[in-house]
Amino acid sequence: MTATPPFAPIFAAAASRVGAAALEARLITPRSRAELAGLGDDRFLSQMSLRIFRAGLKHSLVDAKWPAFEEVFFRFEPRRVRAMADDAIEALLNDRRLIRHLGKLRAVRDNAAAMLAIAEEHGSFGAWLAGWPVSDIVGLWEALAKRFSQMGGNSGPSFLRMVGKDTFILTPAVVTALRHWEAIAAPPKNRRERAAVQTCFNSWAAESGRPLCQLSLILAASVDA
Q1: Distance (Å, rounded) from C-alpha 157 to C-alpha 171?
Q2: Helices 137-147 & 155-163 angle (0-180, nearest 10)
Q3: How far apart are CA 66 and CA 49, in angstroms?
Q4: Residue 13 sits in the same domain as residue 87
Q5: Which of 106, 132, 158 is a domain's end point?
Q6: Pick from 116, 132, 148: which residue ends a domain?
Q7: For 104, phi and psi rounded to 5 degrees?
Q8: Would you tell me which of 56, 173, 197, 210 could form a disulfide with 214, CB atoms 3.0–4.6 Å apart?
Q9: Residues 174, 111: one domain?
Q10: Helix (H, G, I), strand (E, B) or coil at 184
Q11: What is the model's pTM?
Q12: 8 Å CB contact between 41 and 125
């Protein structure tokens, strides 16, 4: 990896491509540490499950079915979900209101158990998530992939974005921009390469004062409006 390029030209290119006002309108603000810690773990489990079911499907289709998922999974209260028996999970395959994918249905229960294990260590899943430093967000991606079912690839970062934890996401546009600005030579494929990208984002955050999620969106807009 080469030296981190300055962020000012990246921002200027993005503003030129989409317009300064339009660019700012695209940007999001992450939740604060207190806000994340204050969310109920049932909402984290719901959003994690939503991300899993969205994968490979049209988001609007999954979102339209989500009230039924909230119902059958007890509004994603982790202890109740963890206690669901195998036959109860398998019976959901007969519910036409749902997306009937046994592996993903089982992942909801598996992830409830994993979330409760973290809550026992840290007081709540939200407290654990809130306390993870954004300067090592790729480490959090790795922890999610290791401890939770179907949270590999961009699913972990996408889940974090959904719940408001500050993160960048290595979308195709972001990777293209990283290569365009010569921050990387090739798409990051392993821990060392992702850590190198993290170093770039940390430098840009220090330079610009912006959160990772905004840097990520600006970077994508700099080459792909």
Answers
A1: 10
A2: 110
A3: 10
A4: no
A5: 132
A6: 132
A7: -75, -35
A8: 210
A9: no
A10: coil
A11: 0.95
A12: yes
CA-nearest of 34, 44, 38 to 147 is 44
Token duo for residue 174: 């972001």
Indicate whether 126 and 53 sit together in one domain: yes
Residue pLDDT, tens place only, 150-172: 999 999 999 999 999 999 999 99
Structure tokens at 30: 């992450």
**Alpha-carbon torsion (168, 169, 172, 173), positive or negative:** negative
Is 138 a domain residue?
A: no
**Does residue 1 contact residue 185 with C-beta atoms inside 8 Å?**
yes
Cα gap 190→143, rounded to integer Å:
14
Q: How far is the C-alpha of 79 from the C-alpha of 115, rounded, in Å?
A: 10
Query: How many other C-beta atoms lie within 10 A of the C-beta of residue 198?
Result: 20
In single-letter form, the type of residue at position 46 comes to S
- Burial (CB < 10 A; 0-12, 13-18, 19+), residue 61, is exposed
Q: Cα separations (Å) of 185 from 138, 182, 193? A: 19, 7, 10
Range of 80's domain?
33-132
Instruction: Indicate whether 189 and 111 sit together in one domain.
Output: no
